[in-house]
C-alpha cells in the first residue's frame, strides 16, 4: 500500500529532479539513499552532496594509487587534480553541508566550484595523455550541477 506521504515524497523527488540539468542522474542518486523517502528539499540536496563527497574520496584514493604507478608524464596532472579534489573535500563539501539549511546561496556557490574543479582536473590531461579520471570527473561535475540545481530551488 502506498501512503499519501510516499506519493508526496516521490512527487518532490520528481519535481525537484526535473529542475536539474540531469534528471536521470538526480533520481538515481536520490533514490539510492533510503533517507530520500521522507526527505525535505534541503535533504535531497544533501543526499547529492554526500554522493559527491563519497566519489571525491574515491578519486583522491585513485589519484594516490596512480601517483605511485603512473608514468612520469602523468604526475603533474595527477598532482594538480589532487589539489582540485582536496579543495572540494575540505572546502566545498563542508560549506554545502553546513549552509544548505541556513544560507543556500553559499551551498550553491560551493557546488558551482565543485563542478569547475572536476572540469579543471580533466583539462590537466589535455595534450599529455588520456585522462585516467574522465569517468570520475564527469560524475563529479554532473552531480555538482544536479546539486546546484536542487539548491537553487531554495533561493
From TrEMBL:
Transmembrane segments: none annotated. One of its GO terms (molecular function) is enzyme inhibitor activity. Residues 8-150 form the Pectinesterase inhibitor domain. Keywords: Disulfide bond, Signal. CDD domains: CIF_like. Pfam families: PMEI. Belongs to the PMEI family. This is Pectinesterase inhibitor domain-containing protein. The lineage of its organism: Eukaryota, Viridiplantae, Streptophyta, Embryophyta, Tracheophyta.
Amino acid at each position: 500500500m502506498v501512503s499519501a506521504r510516499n506519493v508526496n515524497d516521490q512527487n518532490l523527488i520528481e519535481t525537484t529532479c526535473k529542475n536539474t540539468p540531469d534528471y536521470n542522474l538526480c533520481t538515481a542518486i536520490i533514490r539510492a539513499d533510503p533517507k530520500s523517502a521522507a526527505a525535505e528539499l534541503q535533504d535531497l540536496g544533501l543526499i547529492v552532496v554526500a554522493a559527491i563527497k563519497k566519489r571525491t574520496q574515491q578519486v583522491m584514493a585513485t589519484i594516490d594509487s596512480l601517483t605511485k604507478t603512473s608514468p612520469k608524464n602523468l604526475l603533474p596532472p595527477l598532482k594538480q587534480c589532487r589539489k582540485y579534489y582536496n579543495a572540494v573535500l575540505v572546502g566545498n563539501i563542508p560549506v554545502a553541508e553546513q549552509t544548505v539549511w541556513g544560507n543556500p546561496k553559499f551551498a550553491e556557490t560551493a557546488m558551482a566550484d565543485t563542478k569547475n574543479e572536476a572540469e579543471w582536473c580533466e583539462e590537466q590531461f589535455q595534450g599529455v595523455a588520456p585522462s585516467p579520471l574522465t569517468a570520475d570527473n564527469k560524475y563529479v561535475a554532473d552531480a555538482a550541477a544536479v546539486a546546484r540545481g536542487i539548491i537553487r530551488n531554495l533561493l
